[in-house]
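Good morning,

Attaching, inline, the backbone tokens for the sequence recovery test we're adding to the shared suite. The designed sequence is right after.
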């Protein structure tokens, strides 16, 4: 089998259509159909079921796509690296919103000094979306806020992070020395969207304690949530790294719930079948060697915020 066969298969699989694949690849439909048939005959499997003139991937087809997409990705990486002046190639990096706010810009600045010829494209979405895109080989690396939960993915810890319940300085609970979860749930919450790690951790905490909470605001923007609770009597759940400045200037208050913080891990994730070359390894090293700044975070969290 050839790279051409694999590219044709991927095009058909992506749109589940021979017609669309032929248009995308600028090939005649019989040529596309022949390539699929040759693959099926070579491996003695059926890759697609043809039902009512529609294509449906078989289990063999799904497995083949997983392998084929990573083979083509490695091939494209090889060509990019070999044709670039320093053999750097390109990297597709995905990051959760929180990590994208404080870690990615500085990390890529450091990396660019080492490999100025390497082009790193960045996609910032919630953790669930990044994990799915790494699984589908739409991204080479992802940096997410929790364990990926798929055996196909490798997760490498980068640093610890702490989530806090936060309100504005004018909130009725802001002056209390201790608060309980039921007390928090009497007030509206301003939360990240479903699929974000902060939202999933909070939902799990509420279910475990049999509490219901009202989400009045839902946003993909951490800054919108910070500004929202500063102006209204709402509560949010955010990384301590994002609210350090607001806690220090007194516009935000960390609520004294026990435990005050929920520890999570930031992880680099990649597919087990992904070829990890020199530049990708160096990018991971840069990210893992970033200053963690946990000492400052612990200090401000322990200090009075009222």
């Amino acid at each position: 089998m050839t790279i051409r066969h694999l590219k044709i298969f991927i095009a058909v699989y992506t749109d589940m259509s021979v017609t669309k694949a032929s248009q995308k690849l600028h090939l005649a439909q019989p040529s596309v159909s022949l390539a699929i048939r040759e693959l099926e005959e070579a491996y003695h499997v059926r890759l697609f079921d043809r039902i009512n003139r529609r294509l449906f991937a078989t289990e063999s087809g799904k497995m083949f796509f997983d392998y084929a997409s990573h083979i083509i990705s490695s091939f494209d990486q090889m060509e990019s690296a070999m044709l670039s002046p320093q053999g750097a190639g390109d990297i597709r990096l995905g990051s959760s919103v929180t990590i994208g706010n404080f870690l990615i810009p500085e990390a890529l600045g450091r990396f660019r000094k080492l490999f100025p010829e390497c082009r790193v494209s960045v996609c910032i979405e919630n953790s669930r979306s990044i994990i799915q895109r790494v699984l589908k080989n739409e991204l080479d690396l992802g940096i997410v806020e929790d364990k990926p939960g798929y055996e196909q993915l490798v997760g490498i810890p980068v640093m610890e992070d702490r989530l806090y319940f936060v309100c504005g300085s004018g909130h009725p609970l802001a002056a209390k020395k201790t608060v309980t979860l039921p007390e928090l749930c009497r007030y509206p919450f301003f939360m990240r969207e479903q699929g974000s790690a902060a939202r999933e951790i909070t939902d799990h905490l509420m279910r475990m304690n049999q509490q219901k909470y009202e989400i009045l605001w839902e946003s993909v923007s951490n800054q919108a949530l910070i500004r929202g609770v500063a102006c209204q009597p709402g509560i949010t759940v955010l990384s301590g790294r994002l609210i350090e400045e607001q806690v220090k200037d007194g516009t935000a208050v960390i609520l004294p719930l026990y435990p005050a913080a929920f520890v999570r891990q930031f992880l680099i994730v990649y597919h087990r079948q992904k070829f990890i070359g020199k530049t990708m390894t160096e990018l991971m090293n840069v990210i893992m060697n970033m200053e963690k700044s946990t000492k400052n975070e612990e200090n401000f969290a322990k200090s009075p915020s009222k």
